[in-house]
Amino acid sequence: MEADAPQTRATETPPDQSGSRQRQRAVGRRPEAAALSEESRVKLKQRLRSPLNTISGFAELLALQAEGGCQEDSVQRIRNAAGELLEIINRELGDKSETTEMVGERASSMPTEPCDILYIEDDEVNFTLISRILDVRPALHLRHATQGLTGLEIARANHPRLILLDLNLPDIHGSEVLHRLQQDKATAKIPVVILSADATPSQIERLLSGGARNYLTKPFRINNFLAVVDEVLEQYSESATSSRIDHTWQSQG
Question: Model's pTM, two decimal places?
Answer without folding.
Answer: 0.72
